[in-house]
Write a structure and sequence with these properties.
This protein has one domain: ANL, C-terminal domain (GMP Synthetase, Chain A, domain 3). The protein is built from 3 helices and 7 strands. A hairpin with a 2-residue loop joins strand 3 and strand 4. Helix 1 packs across helix 2. The longest helix is centred in the middle third of the chain and has 16 residues. The radius of gyration is 16 Å and the shape is globular. It comes from Amycolatopsis thailandensis. GO terms for molecular function: adenylyltransferase activity. This is Acyl-CoA synthetase.
Length: about 140
């Protein structure tokens, strides 16, 4: 038998590895994308971004499902060009995953909601930074 847990996994060398959650999966043009993979790409795209400070999630719109990324900038970033960071993240996701971001939102340090264990809470980030009508929420940043 089996139990539907909502987890996604892969088997390597006869061992099962959990790779994510089914509810977080992003489907664009019939292709599945792990939000974790998109987040890693964005985190590595610019020196003022980094691991565990990025949330990627799916949004619906007139053009179908799209991807929005919310990223916290580094704490020590006195002079930075937000458009440069956005271009770097957008370009990296397009080149590595063949995905065009619907939006890239850069927020202040500590701006991403987290779970009690300190992980970025994607669903809460979506609620905080994206509205039901498909626009950036004024409650964000």
């Amino acid at each position: 038998g089996w139990l539907r847990t909502g987890d996604l996994g892969t088997i390597r060398n006869g061992r099962l590895f959990v790779t994510g959650r089914l509810k977080d999966l992003i489907i664009i043009d019939g292709r599945n994308h792990s939000p974790h993979d998109l987040e890693e790409t964005v985190a590595a795209a610019h020196p003022l971004l980094g691991p565990d400070r990025v949330a990627a999630f799916a949004v619906d719109g007139d053009e179908g499902e799209g991807v929005v990324v919310v990223a916290e900038r580094a704490r020590r970033a006195p002079d930075f060009d937000e458009s440069e960071i956005s271009r770097a993240a957008t370009r990296a996701v397009a080149e590595r995953h063949d995905v065009r971001l619907r939006a890239f939102l850069l927020v202040k340090p500590g701006g991403l909601p987290r779970t009690s264990s300190g992980k970025v809470a994607r669903s809460a980030a979506r609620t905080r930074y994206w509205t039901a009508d498909g626009t950036e929420s004024p409650h964000g940043s």
